[in-house]
Amino acid sequence: MTVICTLRQFIQERNLTQLKVAQDTGLSPTIIGNLSNNRFSRIDVQTAERLCKYLSCEFGDLFKIQN
């Protein structure tokens, strides 16, 4: 099983940029880029919380388990 992040889809659907999300959430552009490209090995709870709040979504909307 693999955990994937759907941040890229949220960004595209809302006509945002990775830089805009980084600036608005206070997260680094590197973190946003890594999540958008599914290059991560762990998920920081505070990072997930900020993104979910910013995107008005639930954790399960942003992170999915793929078989």
Automatic annotation (TrEMBL):
> CDD domains given for it?
HTH_XRE
Tell me the PROSITE patterns matching this sequence.
HTH_CROC1
Q: Which Gene3D superfamilies match?
A: lambda repressor-like DNA-binding domains
The record, for InterPro entries, names:
Cro/C1-type_HTH (IPR001387), Lambda_DNA-bd_dom_sf (IPR010982)
Describe the location of the HTH cro/C1-type domain by residue ranges: 7-62
The UniProt keyword set, sorted, is: Plasmid
Q: Name one GO molecular function term.
A: DNA binding
Origin, by domain of life?
Answer: Bacteria
Protein's recorded name = Transcriptional regulator, XRE family
Which organism was this protein described from?
Gloeothece verrucosa (strain PCC 7822) (Cyanothece sp. (strain PCC 7822))
